[in-house]
Amino acid sequence: NLILGNRIGLNAAGNGPLPNGLNGVDINDARGVTVGGSTAQARNVISANLENGVRLNGAAVSGIFVYGNSIGTDATSSTIDPDGVPGTGDELGNRMHGIRIDGSQGNFIGSTGAEEFNIIAGNQLSGINLVGVGATDNVRHNFIGTNTDGIPGLGNFGPGIFIQGASKTTIGGPQPTLGDRNVIAFNAGDGVLIVDGAANRI
């Protein structure tokens, strides 16, 4: 299954909220789904939804690739609040987490190709939330709280990455010049926060 080139929670221009009532993308009991892609045409913009931007839910969910998306921003990945005035209703962050992984394992958030990064910004809780002992996932080549230009003002309103009981999750990797590195900046909470869990690697 492929989910490519969509505006999810935004208008067609990608600059104003049209929120879905729950998650932007919700994957349950599925394997082998790709959300996004390696070209500009394949990029999804997933913002302003009333729960999470992307949710992977349950132990049966594995082999999911989420890369090449903007989650919580406009289509240009340059703003999370088009009018620049908080509280006026045009904010673009998802109302919970940018990506929430709940007990799922063997999934990949970001990939190593030149355009296979996610921009995860402006979400009301964390950028990425990994929950449960079954969550053994890989998080690499993401811009969390900023974009590829490194600008401020795009932070998530909680931690950049929040691990709650997940184990054996890898954040980044040994080859930063080949696309393993995450850039985690300007978030309101910790860059990476771990509460419980074991054998996680940063």
Q: What class do helices, strands and sheet pairing give?
A: mainly beta
Query: How is the biggest beta sheet arranged?
Result: 6 strands, parallel
N-to-C series of helices and strands = EEEEEEEEEEEEEEEEEE
General shape: globular
Percent range for β-strand residues: 25-35%
* Share of helical residues: under 10%
Number of DSSP helical runs:
0
Radius of gyration computed on alpha carbons? 15 Å
Spans of at least 5 consecutive residues with low confidence: none
Spatially, the strands of the biggest sheet line up as 1-4-7-10-13-16
Total DSSP E strands: 18
Separation, N- and C-terminal Cα atoms: 30 Å
Mean pLDDT: 95
Primary descriptors:
202 residues, mainly beta, six-stranded parallel beta sheet, 0% helix, globular
Question: Could you walk me through the main structural features you see in this protein, from its secondary elements to its overall organization?
Answer:
- This protein has 202 residues and is mostly beta strands.
- Helix content is 0%, strand content 28%.
- The chain has a six-stranded parallel beta sheet with strand order 1-4-7-10-13-16, with no helix packed on it. The chain has a six-stranded parallel beta sheet with strand order 2-5-8-11-14-17, with no helix packed on it.
- The radius of gyration is 15 Å and the shape is globular.
